[in-house]
């Protein structure tokens, strides 16, 4: 599936693309806890509250005593590997949750406050001896109703990735591949719009490699940014003839590039790092309107270029020169 996932984390009002490596939730049951191992004094109430998913499937954690109060799941954690546990919680009272395994030395207390509402807690540990269980419990010393929880996850890695639900077995989410992404806003008419790429140059795989293309409704290439021999260029059909406009002839790995194109009918304005580079008045795109943008495909993977994408933005209007200079200034 090539539909992009959007990230609103950190309180962002404008989303960014969510691009993640392959990860596996090793817990076999992340939302229904009937098959978890409950110690004697743990009482769980399923479907007790709306969870972050928007469904009534949050679980209430209650303990009748401050001993024998853990909830664990059987899971294999290998010696020497680093894992990250995560859980959505909503405290009923201010309390402390301890994440622990049985043999690998994992034990971390996390304070949770009732005023914080639903939020995700995480704990990361490099295992010192192979473990067969991982879980959590209230370590505050209190009893009664303590907190609600939802979405348990443990994955190999030094940070938590987005939640992967499981229902009876572990699940793997494939790596997001930006080279398979088409960005086709429903309101992009091909007449007036603006798009900007904010990237950091990484190592090229080939001497001639591409960044992003304009594409028509059939997915055919129309124009785009390329990188060749240290020269960053804009390639566009002008009256059906490919033209190469140099943006910067002295680029190097690690450089940051903010590139922006204004489309206004058959006129193109190209901006780079705070400057208007060129205005092209006859970009007919070989007779086809632009329908979207996408990473450069080329004829083989050897033609890909792999930048770090800091930001990709599409505006449904032709921005002014002053706006474009402001947006692209480093």
| Secondary structure category | mainly beta
Q: Which strand order does the major sheet show?
A: 4-7-12-9-10
Shape descriptor: elongated
Q: Low-confidence spans: pLDDT under 50, at least 5 residues? A: 297-304
Number of E strands: 24
Summed over residues and divided by their number, the pLDDT gives a mean of 82
Strand content: over 45%
Sheet with most strands: 5 strands, antiparallel
Distance between the amino and carboxyl termini? 34 Å
Order of helices and strands: EEEEEEEEEEEEEEEEEEEEEEEEH
The count of helical stretches stands at 1
Roughly what percent helix? under 10%
Q: What is the CA-atom radius of gyration, in angstroms?
A: 26 Å
Q: What characteristics describe this protein?
A:
330 residues, mainly beta
What does this structure look like?
The strands form six sheets. A five-stranded antiparallel sheet has the order 4-7-12-9-10, with no helix packed on it. It has a five-stranded antiparallel sheet with strand order 5-6-13-8-11, with no helix packed on it. The chain has one helix at 321-328, and strands at residues 6-7, 16-17, 23-25, 37-38, 42-49, 58-63, 71-77, 82-91, 95-101, 107-112, 119-126, 131-138, 144-156, 171-173, 192-200, 208-215, 221-228, 231-238, 241-248, 256-264, 267-272, 275-280, 292-295, 308-315. It starts with 5 loop residues before the first strand and ends with a helix. 2% of the residues lie in helices and 48% in strands. The chain has 330 residues and is mainly beta. It has one helix and 24 strands. Residues 297-304 have low confidence and may be disordered.
